[in-house]
Write a structure and sequence with these properties.
alpha+beta; ion transport; V-type ATP synthase subunit I; transport; proton-transporting ATPase activity, rotational mechanism; Alpha-Beta Plaits; 6-stranded antiparallel β-sheet; 47% helix
Length: 513
């Protein structure tokens, strides 16, 4: 068939009717609108940037909401879902979208709000989990981790690598303080609360025969806890090993403020990592308990958000329909932004197939006060190319489009191309069994999925005809999966055929022989 002849349509109508005219042309799907330069002065174009941005925002919002619904509850689709095509809504898409757009946009906003809350809570739970892992080695400590010291004394808490045994740490401190005549207290045991009196807690280093060391809470101010140390000999540095976990040795050192820099310098040379700070004046065990409770509340809220979103799964189809509605409107506004208009009228130019030109003109004049001109394109005008082929030849149209479409006035080679493509495809494969499988499979798909996208439908139809051609050539050449039938007959049933013969002889001739 030849390339479809195109007509140019020029339209002038009242400015108040421009949206209605475009909506009608969109529904008809027969006109390709072109942007032309203005033919006179006093014409301008409508600024649609703000309206278009609002529509794009709504399209993006609904698209994100659909992705969230799909992620939380994947749609159960068959293996051939891509062949089913998009479900077309019954009735007028534009009217249905107009009626429910505000409600559906509110639904999409709610989904995004709940999903954002879920994401924030999951991030917070991640931080809580990390904080709990930091505090786990210190959970036996009975005073807060942050700044546990007084004016004259300080407790240094932190960890060293697993290779740092207790004796090595003591030896390091002894060597560092030996020149100053200072002593490191050697003892076994743990820091314990030995008593409470008037709101003070006395922490005792057990295992010392003479002179226990007491740390007492002396004051609280702006969330800080101040500890006092009593019964301590001047110049001593006390060491306590709290435990070993994940390749680290966790320890505490009690020393004077004057000795703090020296102790930290000595420890820093061995990869000392200070204990995590923060907290709210709580012991590590108390903070861990509070954080776990907060994590449980967050998980409960995340579950609640999932359930609320789950209740909106039934609106997925409405969301898809409304998204399509906004896409149609966005396309309309893009065209509106390209139309030239005066104070009272607007102008539109485009191309329409010759067979539909008079129908389009009649529909416009029937509904609107307009002037419509239908004429042949002038020389040099780039009219769109539309091919019209029969049901058989159209299957190879996609192959032609991949190489390039013919120009206006040229011959459409689709039918001839289909004949040679199918003919030589079958000749090159030439296998009856393979051709039967391909043809039957494609035929079933065409019958089963009548709503598949046009490009898919043409490709499947092309392979259907290629399968038929392969089957015919296979029968002519006597090939059915090669010589698999003869080999199987001999191997399993002991059927030995004379040289040059086959179970299924070639109708024409056997190329191999």
């Amino acid at each position: 068939m030849a390339v479809q002849k195109m007509k140019k349509i020029c339209l002038c109508a009242g400015k108040q009717d421009r949206k209605a005219v475009l909506e009608m042309l969109q529904r008809m799907g027969a006109v390709e609108i072109r942007r032309e330069d203005p033919a006179g002065d006093g014409l301008n174009q409508m600024d649609v940037s703000e309206a278009l941005a609002g529509l794009e925002e709504k399209i993006g919002m609904i698209g994100q909401a659909l992705q969230i619904l799909l992620r939380l509850e994947p749609e159960k689709r068959s293996l051939f879902a891509a062949l089913e095509g998009k479900r077309l809504p019954a009735g007028d898409l534009y009217k249905k979208g107009e009626a429910c757009r505000e409600r559906i946009c509110g639904c999409a906003e709610k989904i995004l709000e709940l999903a954002g809350e879920m994401e924030a809570l999951e991030v917070e739970n991640g931080r809580i989990g990390e904080r709990i892992r930091e505090l786990e080695p210190w959970k036996t400590l009975e005073f807060p981790l942050y700044d546990p010291g007084t004016k004259n004394f300080v407790v240094i808490l932190g960890s060293l690598s697993q290779m740092s045994e207790e004796q090595q740490i003591r030896q390091l401190l002894e060597e560092g303080f030996e020149e100053n005549g200072e002593d490191v207290c050697r003892h076994e045991g743990e820091l314990e609360i030995s008593g409470r009196e008037q709101g003070r807690a006395y922490l005792e280093i057990s295992g010392r025969e003479q002179g226990n060391v007491y740390l007492e809470i002396s004051d609280r101010e702006q969330g800080n806890v101040y500890l006092e140390i009593s019964d301590r000999e001047q110049g001593n540095v006390y060491l306590e090993i709290f435990g070993r976990e994940r390749g680290r040795t966790y320890l505490g050192i009690l020393c004077g403020r004057d000795e703090e820099s020296s102790v930290r310098e000595l420890l820093g040379s061995r990869g000392f990592v200070p204990a995590p700070g923060g907290g709210q004046g709580e012991t590590p065990a108390g903070e861990i308990q509070r954080l776990k409770a907060a994590s449980r509340r967050n998980r409960d809220r995340i579950l609640g958000c999932r359930q609320e979103i789950g209740k909106m799964q039934g609106r997925r189809e409405e969301l898809e329909r409304t998204e399509d509605y906004f896409r149609v409107r966005a396309q309309k506004y893009r065209v509106l932004g390209e139309l030239w208009q005066s104070r009272t009228v607007f102008f539109l130019e485009g191309y329409v197939p010759e067979g539909a030109a008079e129908k389009v003109k009649a529909r416009i004049l029937e509904r609107f006060a307009a002037q419509v001109e239908i004429r042949d394109p002038e020389a040099g005008e780039q009219a769109p190319v539309l091919l019209k082929n029969g049901r058989i030849a159209e299957s190879v149209q996609g192959v032609l489009e991949s190489f390039g479409l013919p120009r206006r006035g040229e011959t459409d080679p689709t039918a001839v191309m289909w004949l040679f493509y199918v003919f030589f495809f079958g000749m090159m494969l030439a296998d009856g069994a393979y051709g039967f499988l391909v043809a039957s499979s494609c035929g079933i798909l065409l019958l089963r999925f009548r709503g598949m996208p046009e490009a898919w439908r043409r490709s499947v139809k092309l392979f259907f005809w290629c399968g038929i051609s392969t089957l015919i050539w296979g029968v002519l050449f006597g090939s059915y999966f090669g010589d698999a039938l003869d080999v199987a007959a001999e191997a399993f049933w002991g059927v030995r055929l004379p040289e040059g013969e086959s179970l299924l002889s070639a109708v024409w001739f056997a190329p191999i022989q």
